[in-house]
Amino acid sequence: MRAITLILIALLGLCGPGRANDLSDIRAIRSTAAEAAEILDLENQQKVTATYATVMKNQACSLLRNTVESAGSQQIKHLAQRAIDAVKANDSAALKRLVQQLYQLEGPHGRAD
Amino acid sequence: MGGLIEITLGIMTAVGGFVDISELVFAAQAGSRFGFALIWVFAFSTIGIACYGEMSGRISAIAKQPVFNLMRQRLGLRWGLPTLIVSSIVNTITCSAEIGGTALVLQLLTGWPYGLLAILSTLLLVAIIWLLPFKWIERSFGLLGLAMLCFAVATVQIHPDWHGVAAGFVPQIPHGLPAKDLVVFAYFAVAIVSAVMFPYETYFYSSGGIEENWKPKDLKINRLTTTVGFGLGSMLAITILINAAVLFRPLHIDPQMPGTAALEVAIPFGTTGLLLALAGMLFAISGAAVETGLSTAYSIAQFFGWEWGRYKRPHEAPRFTIAWLVTFGVALAIVLTGIAPLELVEWSIVFSVVVLPLTYLPLMLIGNDRKYMGQHVNGRLANSIGWSFYVVLVVAAIAALPLYFVTGGGQV
Questions:
Q1: Measured between alpha carbons, how far is B23 from B234 in angstroms, rounded to an integer?
Q2: Which of B75, B86, B195, B259 has the most CB atoms lying inside 10 A of its own CB?
Q3: B274 interface with A at CB cutoff 8 Å
Q4: DSSP 8-state secondary structure symbol assigned to residue A18
């Protein structure tokens, strides 16, 4: 029974709210903005269907809205709102500028190549 | 000739049925975040699932015992029951992630509301399981899932750095990563091991062996399906990682939406590529939903010794039938709460690692037991690989929860 209790405690712990912080929020906004920018570009080149582009843009806005609601800092809320506005305006250039800005904000990446 | 067709179909089904939403998500994220550096984890884990898959198929053919029957015999109630409870929770969460993924893909194709599509796809999957015999269910989803091969064609089309890809197969930890990214790298490694070696795959595969009444003559098909089929299926997952490394990484995309993976084929091939990718994803993910739903029912029925199997009519195995219907009902309810499929994938991945050691221990014990297996006990190779992986799984199970919390599910 002790094993069951321990496992259930672990599972309940996992079901709790995730560890959101500024860096993870910035990463999430950066990636969502980059995804939306790419979708807008591909939509302009007619490489994706209109339905796909619309649904993906709606999903991106929904993710960004969640960040606006859950973020602790005003700066994060503002950045997420800028991304939402750019997606709604179909402004891929603005999204790309925002992506670069967020990428710089994340600090040293040391990404593996 | 009939045998050759059977082998080919078995392998093709294994290839088409290998990738599910968790592999899709983690392969794309791993490639965009760490380039080719995590390819070796996919390759490494595939050896593990091939070894345990072969063992479970062999036990089904020789000892005629499914995994959870063995678990109760070997682990007893003290460990067997917690394993059943956690496995059922994991399978149900995974099933809900797959149903959510199916609804998302359908939404990308039709533009219809997500909730409605989740309900419709669940009803359709339930109807398919109710009406079709096991072999048809397994084969149709597996073969239609072969549309995922378009990801491999895209890999060839985008001309990745093949030397870099080959180097990715060599076990490595990238140089020069800050400490926090090293921890995220470790989280992704554990998550990929879990995604490739999901317990439901073994439950479903071994139960399928009994559904299809495998005999010793089927051991060859079993060996080829688990080695060649799983190997090629894993290569498909690796091409998703490669495409993400080449196409998404330079754009600073770490996919936050499952539908982004389809861009890997849309970028080189346009709308046709997009539709093919979505079709492949639809059949691969919905096939996994069927497998996870049935696996939960298999586990519970086998553990408690109920009548089970899709070779029986639903009313001939009523408790088994109720078990899979309830699983789909609970999974759909979870989806309708509005939890994002991506979040469900993360939970199922972390929970799965925790039960992996308990899933594979009985297989190792029975596989070595001459009383059950006779001349077909594990050979040296199966034992070496099996026990080595067992150590890896125990380490991964211990590390999974701390890594999940420290990295915030890989988002830090």
A1: 9
A2: B195
A3: yes
A4: P
The CA distance from B130 to the nearest CA of chain A, in Å, is 32
Residue B254 is nearest to which of A23, A27, A51, comparing CB atoms? A27
CA–CA min distance A78, chain B (Å): 20
Chain A (90-109) residues lying within 8 Å, Cβ to Cβ, of chain B: 99, 103, 108-109
Domains and CATH numbers, chain B: 2-407 (1.20.1740.10)
Answer whether B216's CB lies under 8 Å from B376's CB: yes
pLDDT tens figures, B312-334: 888 999 999 999 999 999 999 99
Distance from CA of A107 to the nearest CA of B (A): 11
Q: Kindly report, residue by residue over B55-110, the tens digit of the pLDDT.
A: 999 999 999 888 888 878 888 888 889 889 989 999 999 999 999 999 999 999 99
Say yes or no: A10 contacts chain B, CB-CB below 8 A.
yes
Amino acid at B185: F
What DSSP string describes B118-168?
HHHHHHHHHHHHHHS-HHHHHHHHHHHGGGGHHHHHHHHHT---HHHHHHH
Are the beta carbons of A31 and B255 separated by less than 8 Å?
A: yes
Alpha-carbon gap, residue B64 to B218, rounded angstroms? 13
Contact present, B16 and B144 (Cβ < 8 Å): yes
In chain A, where the domains are located: 18-105
Helix H or strand E segment including B43: helix B39-62
The model carries a pTM of 0.93
Question: Does the pLDDT at position B175 exceed 90?
Answer: no
The secondary structure of B275-330 as a DSSP string is: HHHHHHHHHHHHHHHHHHHHHHHHHHHHHHT----TTS-GGGSHHHHHHHHHHHHH
Residue pLDDT, tens place only, B119-141 = 999 999 999 999 999 889 989 99
